[in-house]
Amino acid sequence: DPIGENHVSPNGFGHMTHMLKTLANGKLILALEGGYNLDSISKSALACVKVLLGEPPGKLGPIIPSQDCMETIHHVIRTQSKYWNCLAPVYYATEDRLPGQLLVDMAEMLKMYRTKNLYSKYKLIPVPLSDGKLGQRFTNLACCSGDLYNKEVVFFFVHDMADFRADTRATSNSINVSNSYMIDTVYLYIETILNNNHGIIDVDIPPIISQPKNENQDLRELLIFLWDNLIDASNTKKVILIGAGRGCRSLTGLISERDYSVMEKVVCTIMIPGPNEVPSVSKRADLSTWYQS
């Protein structure tokens, strides 16, 4: 199916039909929709009908699912597990909690722990945000040095939330707490920066929980707020931008929105994109040239 970009081969449709025959005592209906690639739909329909007539499905080539494919399947299973007991993980919606139960989002627990730890170890303080959208979305996720305004060099570090590795029990999919842990490689960066007597603004990007289309815009607004209130309003002469993971794209958004101020103060930009490509800046030719250099 090249138009839908699902990349399912005719043999793939044959195998799915073969698997469906094992359900409902083999009672199966195939419904054809029109309007797609006629060559693809005829070959795929033929593969399905052959299986219905008792022929074995055709051989499949190497199956290497993309990460997007696996994530999509996982989300489907999580949602359907509310209605099918045979599926794990069992999704437990906040609105389904029983009276007297306390449900706390795992990301919220990690955020609270990290904020407390950053203050106790490095005296980093949460940046006060407004009561509006930024405050609701990012409270306690942006921290900075207490003496930031007196630092000539400031690192603006934007990165994904720490990686949580959970060991789950096979029968119930519940977390085995004693064997689960958090991996946060950011502390080495923070320690090195502070040991060299520099200032730091640390932004921990939370997982996408809703409205993923607005995710980049929300992060960009947060970074602009931090830049205007902590960098432009201070005595900082040199700024180093570091983006890791999803932080890369939001930082290039900041560069585009505060172009002249950024070009004046930023002396180095470091991007650690992970599996994603490094986003470019193309608002103006001079800004793009500056960013590339």
Write the layout of secondary structure elements.
Elements: H1 10-20, H2 38-52, H3 67-80, H4 106-122, E1 124-126, H5 133-138, E2 142-145, E3 153-160, E4 163-165, E5 181-183, H6 186-195, E6 199-205, H7 215-231, E7 238-244, H8 247-257, H9 259-265, E8 266-272, H10 285-292
Keywords: Chromatin regulator, Hydrolase, Nucleus, Repressor, Transcription, Transcription regulation
Enzyme class: hydrolase
GO molecular function, one term: histone deacetylase activity, hydrolytic mechanism
Explain what you see.
This protein has 293 residues and is of the alpha/beta class. 40% of the residues lie in helices and 14% in strands. It has helices spanning 10-20, 38-52, 67-80, 106-122, 133-138, 186-195, 215-231, 247-257, 259-265, 285-292, and strands at residues 124-126, 142-145, 153-160, 163-165, 181-183, 199-205, 238-244, 266-272. The strands form two sheets. It has a six-stranded mixed sheet with strand order 1-2-6-3-7-8, sandwiched between helices. It has a two-stranded antiparallel sheet with strand order 4-5. Helix 1 runs parallel beside helix 2 (38-52). The two termini are 42 Å apart. The model has no long low-confidence stretch (mean pLDDT 84). This is histone deacetylase. Its EC number is 3.5.1.98. It is found in: Nucleus. It comes from Funneliformis mosseae (Endomycorrhizal fungus). Keywords: Chromatin regulator, Hydrolase, Nucleus, Repressor, Transcription, Transcription regulation.
